[in-house]
Amino acid sequence: MPATNSARGVFLTGGSGYIGRRLIRALVQRGHPVRALVRTGSERKLPAGAEAITGDALHGVSYAGQIAPAYSFIHLVGVAHPGPAKAEQFRTIDLASVKAAVPAAVTAGIQHFIYLSVAQPAPVMRAYVETRAEGEALIRESGLNATFLRPWYVLGPGHWWPLLLLPGYWIGELLPATRESARRLGLVTIRQVVRALVHAVEQPALGVKVLDVPKIRQAQLIGRG
After folding, report:
1. Looking at residues 99-103, what average pLDDT do you find?
2. Does 176 reside within a domain?
3. Which is more confidently placed, 54 or 174?
4. Which of 96, 105, 117, 189 could be stapled to 73 by a disulfide with Cβ–Cβ 3.0 to 4.6 Å?
5. Radius of gyration of the CA atoms of the chain, in A
6. Angle at 64 between CA 61 and CA 70, to 5 degrees
7. 21 within some domain
8. Handedness of CA 177, 179, 182, 183 (dihedral sign)
9. H-type helices in 9-95, by residue range?
10. What are phi and psi of 12, to 5 degrees?
11. Using an 8 Å Cβ cutoff, are 72 and 10 in contact?
């Protein structure tokens, strides 16, 4: 296996999204060749430095032949602004895209699958959590080495309102009865999530690794790719 900070080819879905655009910039800056799946006509939405691969995230055969020679596959596809009213979309988009991506990744010889999941268990957003858990199960069943990131709410531009909840989190972490859930369902920043995803690329799992909220906050980068 290459050194942990060496450049690795990455194939990425959801590259034109809120997290994907920032992740591509970070990966390219660290020297990782990036190929990103986009719909036809959306190629210009990708940051500079990424090679656009046109296809349909819900149909793996539309892009499976263009995944190689990537080492890692990062799956970021998901419904924007998830909420309870979008339960059906979680299955027809989020879960369906994972069902398409996993066999495509296996066929392409991907060595490491990185999946943006969600903190679990959780007392709310049950449909969302259930579909992400099903996505994790599909990846486990494939036999792929995998890293699952499990943030709860990602703070960033346009997504700052949960800062109002911080006093409640501080109290929750002080009380033994609520400490574990307060940490597991804690807030992370977009910068922390991007850093953790780059960390996963540069330090790929053998087997399955889970990065929950505390581990996302702690993820460190080593040198430059």
Report:
1. 98
2. no
3. 54
4. 105
5. 17
6. 170
7. yes
8. negative
9. 18-29, 87-89
10. -135, 135
11. yes
